[in-house]
Write a structure and sequence with these properties.
Layout (H helix, E strand, L loop, with lengths): L2 H9 L2 H9 L3 E5 L2 E4 L12 E4 L2 E4 L2 H8 L8 E3 L6 E4 L5 E4 L7 E4 L5 E4 L5 E8 L4 E8 L3 H10 L3 H9 L7
Parallel strand pairs: 2-5, 5-7
Antiparallel strand pairs: 1-2, 3-4, 6-7, 8-9, 10-11
């Protein structure tokens, strides 16, 4: 487990863990709207970004369409994982929305190659999405909150990387 996973696991009860295990990898909150964490193909795969040996970049329309797989209907897709607030409309396909992250504005990862994902500000980010059965839209939101208090909590948990990210919206550089 990562450091974050270890901290979370120490706080969770067995009932909490059972509830988490019961959650589906894909959810349809209303007919035609699909919510996933990563991409339709996997929980840890970025949907709107592509990681290369030189870092992360926005995915091309062709890459996003390929990640949709056979599920290319025009209904919106809500997804998370990269922490970067973004919305992409696929031509003749779905609106894909990443609401961003409420409390983790930047992160670094080593898989499949070392890269960072950064919002550039510490603001909490979310989206308000609507779907009328025919078309969808999303309003991307950013708001201030007491990120200094959140940074102090991360500091008390021995997470200087998270402290830096909460205060700046950037991932600390190790090179």
């Amino acid at each position: 487990m990562s450091l974050s996973d270890q901290l979370a696991a120490a706080e969770l009860t067995s009932a909490d863990m059972d509830w988490l295990r019961s959650l589906p990898p894909r959810l349809e909150p209303t007919q035609g709207v699909v919510a996933v964490h990563g991409s339709p193909r996997g929980d840890l795969e970025y949907f709107l970004e592509t990681v290369t040996p030189t870092g992360a970049r926005q995915a091309t329309a062709a890459e996003i369409t390929e990640r949709l797989g056979p599920d290319r209907t025009a209904a919106p897709r809500l997804r998370w994982h990269s922490h970067i607030q973004r919305m992409v409309q696929i031509q003749q396909g779905p609106l894909i929305v990443n609401p961003g992250s409420v409390g983790w504005p930047a992160c670094a990862d080593d898989l499949p190659y070392p890269h960072v994902m950064e919002s550039g500000t510490p603001h909490a980010r979310y989206a308000v999405a609507t779907w009328d059965g025919q078309s969808g839209r999303a309003d991307l939101k950013a708001l201030t909150y007491d990120w200094e208090q959140a940074a102090r909590i991360a500091e008390s948990n021995g997470r200087p990387d998270v402290v830096y990210s909460l205060r700046t919206g950037l991932a600390p550089r190790t090179d």
